[in-house]
């Protein structure tokens, strides 16, 4: 461990900072008097003017030249300067001995020789320390670690360097053996040279003449009879070559007789021991600052200052933190190793160069808007001489006191600890530049600060008793604070004032280049301190800046114009002055001084009338003696004038005592009115108990002070303060009694910042009784206090009890009562907390009540309750409930997380795992959504498994819609279901089958779906919907089965999916087939009627382009519509007798029956029913039935007719040949067919129906081609009977047709007749069919005959059903037809005559 360095500087606390308003700033002395009670406690304060107060800088910068003071920082600090002085003496001692002092190092630190010397002296001296072995203790005191033999090193260094100096000062014989040994050992290890303080000396020019140079050795001249040079130590003259001559006294000494002995001749001056004692005993010169050799202008000084700071800190001046500068300054002043020198332009007279503030009549031209600063009280040129300042009564101009001084600072330039002259106020204004750091101590700590500095640096005060008045000594504030001195600091920035108060020590330094101005002023309160200061100066023999007695007398001579408060202060000061003067004059008279003489001392300059002893400025009286002209002493030092008899002395006086008393009486008379008022104020302020006056008396005294303009002083401030306190107490007491303030409980607010506590209220009641005045509210407030105490007792009892839901009303009533008191009651927040706790417990009970909350506690409810409970004040009841809720929430969250994890598990968990989880959830009294969802999932899984089991156990063929629905439902159930894989395989196989069937049937880019191709056509033709009228009706029941209304293909597909077996599916498809036949018959009839010879071709709309027929046309064998050969693709070979179908009728590729049967076989292996499969099965059954019928028809033809004959006969037998015009008419556009077509009117209805059904089949059958060729040749020789044709119809078709015809029979039985010839319709609803299903075998012959009676004569009656069925009558044959069967609308039937197809054909033949 090395020696400890100086501790880092700790900034003292900040002094008060005041920011006056414009109203307060208007009168500087009133504002300073206002802040004085606060600011004088810290000694200094800072005042920030209002922001708009910015006086112009009026100093003549060009004329301002000054010579600064030189400041070496480590010489400023008192303790550091003591160390430097000690080192100077040690260095001088060894230098005169012919040696150079070098300071040794210990533990890599420079040894503090001053501290070592002081510690050894305090321990009893070198001999005692050695005997007691205290060197280790001294080493530890100096900061060295023990155990490193540092004590022995310190002993060696002390013995070699300091002990000879100590022996020299003590006068011990230096020739003792020990000293000789010590001197011989004078070799200092690890030494560094010390910088010795340079002191100003008088420099004399030396003439270097050789003959005047004195030789060190004796001159080589013939020896006289007696030796002229002998050694004063040994008394011998031998060894003349070793004799030295002293440069001071020419005495001779042998080099080996000196202490220490010299081995060589010194090169510089050498002094003998006698001259050495004389040199060392000379008193030191008083320390002071030297003046710099250079004269600076403001600009050149600023450049130098900024350069110094930026170079020192190696950064721009404006970027250096003030804290860093402050710490570095105190480090530098406390070290002896670094020598930093700065310059300070201090005490520059503003009278010579002009003030920084504008002056009336000055050289600086003030702008009109700045003229207000000329008369401003804060202008330092005006402040010292304003009326409230007593310095206005000093006749002379005093630089620095009544005239401002200017200060130009640079970084580290400082002003040392001092108090102002005569202990006056001072005010400093920083015009511009970097901040100035201040330190101050309050006036009451002045003597304490002086005592600490004298204790820590007594050597400095021995030579300079008035050292602190020289402004040359500084001491670290931390050191003073460590000794109990209160120190405060502040940073004064540009545009701010710093005020120091009487006898307040202050010091500081500048942060950088700046310009400041300062002046002194004195107020009335300073008067007693001013007289004390004069007495203090007399003891220190310090001169006075002005005569205090002269100033008091000048004020007394102007008693009529004095302020009453100032007059009172002057009167008190004069009384003390006259009393002291009378005692001194009596003392002098008793001494024997009889001569008296009037002398006007005010006509002399201050330095000409100073006491020769104490340097006090004489004014009232002084003693003189003829032996010492121009010399006088004050009466306190009458014995120090001269040695002449006292009778020779003359008493010079300025006033006789009889002159002084009238002056004092005049001042007293001026102050009487104020004194009388002050006496009454004192009386009422000091009244006790029942003698106290009402507050109105205090208000009257204040009013009197305002009327008579009594100045602001301590008494008036105290009276005003007491009155204000009484009024405030009265107002607060009345408010407390009235309860004017809204309660916190009602408004929800917090504590009012002005609200009293109960203890404060007790103190307030005591304060009411302790006021100097009496208040009527005091007894009433005491009763209120008793009520509050009763409330507190009741509240404490309730708070002590357990929390109960029944106590809510009681707590609320207490809160209501407590809120009426305008007092801070600590029980109120506790009662609110108890109310919240009670309400919270009630809320928990309600949430857990199964009656009010049957679902149970939800997680959000638990969290809300817990969040509310967390904010409650801890209580055992709430803590227990909170713990239970926390546990329940933890369990619930854990269950919810597990349930959510099970529901989101991939792959899904088994049903057993979920069921086991549900067993854990049972018994948890909470509403758990995920657990409920888990329960629902388990239930759905069980239902799904049961359904899957029912499907497998029933042995029925599965329906695709049911299987698909179950697969979709299984995917929505997050449970691993074993049958799901099997069902998914079935669905995928069905999908593969559908894709295979689509490839088999569908044409490339076909707009139809597979189901639309396989199922009978529901809508035929594009214009069919426009011609059909929608008939309202109800679904008619047939047996037990509720019939489904089939309005679209989606309805058909839905009906097939919903059918329970294949039979019902076949029945549905049979109904669709009938619809297909009805629609196609109507379409064919309509298309045939369009192309009749009577039709206007230009008005016709045919083909896919919906344009009139023209040119080569193609006619579809199925829909009988005509198509332009350029719009559609015709047959590849027009001569090939194949049926041509239009794009709308050609719906599939029509595969062979074998392929279709293969598809059906593969579907049957899958064992899944689907609408496409039912349609395919029905198609195969339909194809088989049609094949049988077609073979019968083919067989009925003449077998002798060969196919070749048929081919030749076809053109001749056909009524419509290739290239022939189709029904040309005059004026119409001619067009022709380009392919062979069957002549429909020549066919029977059975053959046409057979042919149409063969073309409708989406399967390629050889019978269809054969039948087409036969029909193309002509009708058969024998027709198939109607009965045989009906037998060939499948049983399902019979059932469907009978059901439709039965409805018509029921309508006919009701006797409903058509309304007119043109139309008739059934207006009543058909009766409902019986619930029992009617099979094909149950249909009787009577029912068949009934059906024949209800059919319309149309070849292919559509047998429409519904509430309204429209009929139309032919105008030729008078037969009735269904409008929908012949393709006639109600509007057309009403406007035009109708002719059936048969009649139209007959009439056409006749016309031909």
TrEMBL record:
Alphabetized CDD domains for the sequence: ARID_KDM5B, PHD1_KDM5B, PHD2_KDM5B, PHD3_KDM5B
Main location: nucleus
Catalysis: reaction(s): N(6),N(6),N(6)-trimethyl-L-lysyl(4)-[histone H3] + 3 2-oxoglutarate + 3 O2 = L-lysyl(4)-[histone H3] + 3 formaldehyde + 3 succinate + 3 CO2
Cofactor: Fe(2+)
Listed name of the protein: [histone H3]-trimethyl-L-lysine(4) demethylase
Pfam families to which the protein is assigned, alphabetical: ARID, JmjC, JmjN, KDM5_C-hel, PHD, PLU-1, zf-C5HC2
Gene: kdm5bb
Biased composition (Basic and acidic residues): 1282-1294, 1301-1312, 1321-1332
GO molecular function: DNA binding; histone H3K4me/H3K4me2/H3K4me3 demethylase activity; zinc ion binding
Domain PHD-type: 228-278, 1100-1148, 1349-1402
Domain of life assignment: Eukaryota
Keyword NAD: no
PROSITE patterns: ARID, JMJC, JMJN, ZF_PHD_1, ZF_PHD_2
GO BP terms, alphabetized: regulation of DNA-templated transcription; rhythmic process
